[in-house]
Design a protein that fits this description.
The complex is a heterodimer of chains A (about 270) and B (about 260). Chain A has a domain of about 190 residues: 3-Layer(aba) Sandwich (Rossmann fold), CATH 3.40.50. Helices cover about 35% and strands about 25% of the residues of chain A. Chain A has seven helices and ten strands. Chain A has a six-stranded mixed beta sheet with strand order 6-7-8-3-9-10, with helices on both faces. The radius of gyration of chain A is 19 Å and the shape is globular. With about 260 residues, chain B is mainly alpha-helical. Helix content of chain B is about 80%, strand content about 0%. At the A-B interface, strand 6 of A face helix 7 and helix 8 of B.
Chain lengths: ~270, ~260
């Protein structure tokens, strides 16, 4: 892992216009993601984490400050940044194979037919989907759909992987399996990853650093280095250091949740 | 229906029809109604063969079916892009919605007298009224459907590097197809109803005119025959469309089988 900064948030603020004025959602956020790093954002739901990810993805521009990618401003969405959405977004009208091949058939990443087939083949194998290559998404389970979304994002060989609560809708077992699969493919292909999650446990298990975000408007509460080396296995969860780090961070995050609740109570008409 | 035995399946399909024909026959002989007022299925069938062999019925059927198809095709051609614009651009939808609903709520049949004044009783009048019926029933289905398309698919395509043109061709078109087919199905129903009404009022040929003429001469078997033909053609068109839907939309969760 080099120490080169790749994604840099520099005093980023975002506000959304509402009838009662500008609602600040993100306030003065500074942090960076280094090459090959896995950085998670944790914090109360609805606090503006997704907004930050959307800026990196290119769907949104900050109201002030800047987000740069390898030193350059972000012009819009692009195939260098793979995005995994919570609601999967697999294309229901395409088979598994064609979902994975979709990106490579676009002009932006045009490949020969053979190359495309080869890439599809590789990711179907990796994600355990090759038996379902001609199946439509309606027949797949939630975990399989999420694997398909991951395979489709991977197929265009993005340098960055941006994930917004990707495992939120999965059951505990599938979630664990997906976490390990994610670590495995990241290990193999060495991508720089950003993850949004509300699970402290998941954030620690997957990340090299965790950014704790405050209740809205989001500011960076603190950035925690996760000291455990990769490759990691689920047994990490039982180690004393892991448990200690988890409880420290839970306290941090719970305090933000409480602040969020308080905000909601204050805002509610009595 | 998932019955494996084809014979049993056919029997099950035929059963309700047989029941209807049986009930009809019984009604004729029951003495509950004047038998003159209810022709038997056999009488209607005889009339059917007679008119089929002298070529009158096929011509009327063809004329009616052709009018329906022209109306539906023209209506769809305009309803698809219009419905698309209304569904896609939410701000257009806001002010166009009441207008569209006003015209849609007007039964096309109510406009027939006006159309007769402007366009006479020739083919042009029928095309105008059927186009109207098809367009306003189709446009509603289209824009309701299009406005429900989730923006997530477009976002995903963008992150994979799709251009606007690619997003339109490869994401929006496949997502619109089910709504287009539903629109056509709804249009067919409305247009058939409108067609027969317009033929009843002003036409020299077509199934509606046939019924109207038969009524003037108290030919009840002919009226029955006309009604049955209208039902069967409508049913056939709907079945055909459903087959097309199944063929192209087998990726969808719900398919009306």
């Amino acid at each position: 892992m080099s120490t080169r900064d790749r994604i840099v948030f520099d005093h980023v603020s975002v506000g959304f216009p509402t009838p009662s004025g500008l609602l600040p959602v993100v306030e003065d956020v500074c942090f960076s993601v280094r090459d090959g790093e896995f950085v998670s954002l944790v914090g109360p739901s609805g606090c503006g984490k997704t907004t930050m990810l959307n800026i990196v993805a290119g769907f949104l521009k900050p109201s002030s400050g800047s987000v740069t990618l390898d030193g350059a401003a972000i012009a819009g969405p692009g195939p260098d940044r793979g995005v995994i959405f919570q609601e999967y977004g697999v294309f229901p009208w395409l088979t598994v194979e064609n979902n994975i091949g979709f990106g490579l058939s676009l002009r932006a990443n045009q490949r020969s037919k053979e190359e495309r087939a080869e890439v599809c083949e590789r990711y179907m194998k990796l994600m355990g989907l090759h038996e379902f290559r001609r199946a439509y998404p309606k027949t797949l389970s939630g975990g399989m759909r999420q694997r398909l979304a991951l395979a489709r994002a991977y197929a265009v060989a993005p340098q960055f992987l941006l994930m917004d609560e990707p495992f939120g809708a999965l059951d505990a077992q599938t979630r664990t399996a997906m976490q390990d699969l994610l670590l495995e493919v990241l290990q193999k292909e060495g991508k720089t990853a950003m993850l949004i999650t509300h699970s402290v446990e998941e954030a620690i298990y997957l990340s090299s650093r965790v950014v704790v975000v405050t209740a809205r408007p989001s500011r960076v509460r603190c950035i925690v280095d996760v000291p455990f080396p990769y490759p990691r296995t689920q047994s990490l969860h039982e180690q004393a250091e892991f448990i200690e780090l988890r409880s420290t961070m839970r306290d941090l995050v719970m305090r933000e949740y409480a602040a969020q609740e308080q905000q909601a109570r204050d805002a509610a008409p009595s | 229906m998932t019955d494996a035995n084809p014979l049993r399946r056919a029997a099950l399909l035929a059963l309700p029809w047989i029941c209807v024909v049986l009930a009809w026959t019984l009604l004729h002989y029951s003495g509950l109604v004047n038998p003159v007022l209810v022709p038997t299925p056999a009488q209607v069938a005889r009339r059917f063969w007679e008119l089929m062999s002298n070529g009158k019925l096929p011509i009327d059927m063809l004329i009616s079916a052709r009018r329906v198809l022209i109306g539906v095709v023209l209506g769809t051609l305009l309803a698809v892009p219009t419905g698309f614009v209304l569904g896609w651009y939410k701000n257009v939808h806001g002010f166009a919605d009441p207008l569209v609903n006003f015209f849609r709520a007007l039964p096309p049949i109510a406009l027939i007298p006006l159309v007769v004044v402007y366009f006479g009783i020739g083919e042009a009048a029928k095309v105008v009224i059927l186009f109207y019926a098809a367009f306003f029933s189709g446009v509603i289905v289209m824009y309701e459907g299009i406005s429900q398309i989730s923006p997530i698919f477009i976002r995903v395509a963008r992150t994979l590097g799709a251009t606007d043109g690619e997003i339109f061709r490869r994401v929006i078109v496949p997502l619109s197809l089910p709504h287009i087919l539903t629109a056509v199905r709804v249009e067919l129903g409305v247009v058939w109803a409108t067609l027969v009404a317009s033929e009843l009022i002003a036409a020299q040929n077509g199934l509606g005119a046939m019924i109207q003429n038969a009524s003037s001469f108290f030919q009840l078997d002919l009226i029955y025959l006309g009604i049955i033909c209208i039902g069967l053609i409508a049913l056939g068109m709907d079945l055909l469309l459903r087959k097309i839907s199944q063929r192209f939309l087998n990726w969808q969760d719900r398919i009306s089988a």
